[in-house]
Each structure stands twice: as structure tokens, then as C-alpha cells.
């Protein structure tokens, strides 16, 4: 892409021809970005449908709970409801295990199209369900499909987008999942849950059709030797240009894959092969594979991500989203319980949007602390309100009934502006390349396990602690999580992957800018002296193309999810 013209000197106005060149550059930039946005949007339709599966139990539980006046043939006990709200979550990691191996042979695009089939089947089973077994079967289908989509969805957006667009387009994934939850809350206000299930079946069908109009990943096509198709794919993705315009990027892509092939099948250069052989000879058989997973550079980031997931799920937001209708009813919300869930979805969506916009300017640490402490304060205040009114008649008018509703909506906004999205962002940043594939899958799995545990344990906690005790516990988890994250969460925003790895190898300190500057200068002096003495070349700048971006260890990620 041609660089924009330099600004006029001495602060004067730019000449007319310079303005014309700038306008031309803007048009070209838009043309290059538009096809990548369209391809990402087609992929995001799948995530929209997945978000619907997360919001669907919320609108269904009130109608199928034992004692409800809905007249539905299905009447579930509390234990059955707890399974209904969580079975899909525990099935997602199982789907993740098969995601990579199934994606590689048939491609990202075709995988994403096939994944829509179990979603469609699940919605139809929901619509016609007449037994508990059928409900559970549908939940297993959406859980497995949610896991199966992980590898193609993650790798597709990474492989088709240019580095300067990747962050923004990747951030739309979480937005679409939350939007799917909101759509369920919206439909639940106007339609019975079975009708909602039938309507939901249309969305994966639309997603599958939309994917026919976008190209396959050029990275995958080149890896299969289909260079001509990869060239056409790149021409489409870079603004519907001629092959000559993408020749350099295509060559970079081929070189990158050839180099990786050599490293995998020829052992890389002689020094690396000798070092690997020496390491293997010096250690017992089988120990070398586990060694990277026993080092600080894996253990500390994994602990950080796992605790972030735990705090995000056990600080109240997971159960609030799932059991919101019941919670709003218990607290005596002054508006219709389904309308309250609609406001809840809007608050989640607004919080996610704020996170996407502000994270690049404010950084992750400030957003996380405000989010976690604010969420904890909201649940603590609601717990106090529930404790004060714990002995009151459920049908009696309550003063300040708007207060718990407002606080819970605020907690939804705050949690989604930080702590709920934080671990998903960290997964792509904090792990070294050697373990990134396995670590990403393990981190996502522990997140879904915590989500399952939070929903499944909710009714047990209510029986043992009552509502106010449960909410006090949520507030305490949030407060403890904020303290942990204050001492463990580095500021990774604006940092390269190399700098983040230096933090975990104790070469940098991203918790404190002052300590980081002192440590960096102390370590930099001997390194610079060595570089000057040996005439080493300076470090490379940012990578230009997706294929050569060191953040992408795509085959490793997809095969280990």
C-alpha cells in the first residue's frame, strides 16, 4: 500500500494535488479493508448463533421450571434445571479436542459451513422437544458445535486479515457472542421459547450461505499446494485487485510455509538440530515434551488466565445471565422480569463495546480493576439489600425496589467492560510460541469448566447460603480477584509478544513502568555491547503480512485446541 503524503511544512495547508493524493489513499485503504471486514462478518454470524445458545436457557428456564404456569409439557426440577443451564458448557472442551484435526483436512471455510449443521439440528430438537432427554441432546449438540468451531474461527480471521486490522476485527468476535445473547433476551420478550428456537434455526442457515460468498484462507490453500486458488483468494481479500498486487505477499506466504516445512521435517538448521539432540540425550525419554510446561513462562501466564476466568465466572455474572429472570423476580424488580433481562443484555453489549474501544487507550489494568472492584461492590450492595428484606413478604411492596435492578445492570456493564473479556484477550498474548497451541486449548477449556461449575452450583449455594449469602460470596471473590490481578496482571496493551515473553522470563517488568525501565537498561547494556562487537543486525520491525506475523503459530493452535 502506498504511504500517505507527508503533511505540508511549516503548518501550512496542503496543496490541492496533495489533498487529492490523500483522498486517493483513503479510498484505497477502504477498498483493502472492506473485503476483510466482509469475510470476518460472515464468520461472525456463526458466533452470533453461538451467543444465542448461551442466552437461550435464560428465557427457557422460567417456562419449564416445575410449578410454572406456562402449561408446557416439560416441567423440570431444580437439579434438572441446573444441568439444563450447564451441560452445553462442559461439552465445549470436548468439541475443542476434535476441532483442529477436523479443520485441517477440509479447510477453514468448509469447516465453518459444516459446523452450522449441528446448530440447526439442535434448534429443531429444542423446538419439538417433549422429554428431558431431548433437551439434553440438543444441549450436547450446541456444546460440541461450539467447541468444533474454535479452530476454524480463530485461524480463519488470523489468516485472512492484515496485522493492522487484525486486532479490531478479532475484537468483533466477543461483540457478536454478546449480541447473540441479547437477541435471545429480545426474542424472549415477545415469543414463546419453542418459537424462539425455530427462529434461531434460521441464523446458522444464513451463516452457512454467507460463507459461500467469501474465499478460503490463502494460508490453508498454499499449505495444500493450491497456489492458484490462494492467489485468487488474496486478490479478493486485498481489495479485488490484480494478481500482481498480491505477488509479494503470496511469495512471503509460500516462503513462510516452506521454512516451516523444513523445520518440521528436516529439523531446522544444524545447530538447532544438534541442540535438540543433545537435550534429548541429556534427559529421560519423554521428559523433553513436558519441559516447556514446567517453566515459569508457561505456569505463571496459565495461572493468570485461569484465575481471571475463575473471577469472571464466580463473581456473579455467569449465574446472573443464566438465572436472571428468577433473580429479578426474587429481588422484586419493579418492571417485567423479561424486560429486565432485555436491559441486562443491553448492559452487557454496552460494556463489551466500551472494552473494545477503551482497551487500546486506557490499557487492560485500569479497565480490569474498575471492572472487578465495581462488579464486586454492586453484588455486595445487592446482597445487603437482600439481607435487609430477607424476612419480608415476597408479595409486599418494597421501598427502593429499583435499587437492586440498577446495581445488577451496572454489574453487567462493568463486568463486560473488563474481567469477563480479559482472559480471552490474554490467551492470545501471554504464552510463548512453543506452548501456545496446547496452552490456548487448556486455557479455553478451564474457562468453560468454571462456567459450568458456576451455573451447576448456583442452586446448591442458594440452599446453603441463601441469596444474600451467595451474593456476598460473589463480592468477596471479585475483591480477592482484584488484589491478585493487581500484583500479577502485566500491562500488555501496546506491547509486542516478545516484550510480554520478556516479562515472564524476568527480563522486563510490565507491572511497573519505572522498574521496567531500570531492568531494561540494566539488561540492554551488555546486549548492545555484544551486538556492536559482533556487528549484529538490528531487530526487525513489525511484520507486514499475516503469513509472516510471529504471533501466528496457526497449525500448532488448530492441532492442539
From TrEMBL:
Keywords, comma-separated and alphabetical = Membrane, Transmembrane, Transmembrane helix
Start and end of every Major facilitator superfamily (MFS) profile domain? 37-493
Q: Which PROSITE patterns match?
A: MFS (PS50850), SUGAR_TRANSPORT_2 (PS00217)
Q: Which Gene3D superfamilies match?
A: MFS general substrate transporter like domains
Return the Basic and acidic residues bias intervals: 533-542
Transmembrane parts of this sequence = 45-66, 81-102, 114-130, 136-157, 169-187, 193-214, 301-320, 340-362, 369-388, 400-422, 434-453, 465-487
> Where's it found, cell-wise?
Membrane
Name recorded for this polypeptide: Major facilitator superfamily (MFS) profile domain-containing protein
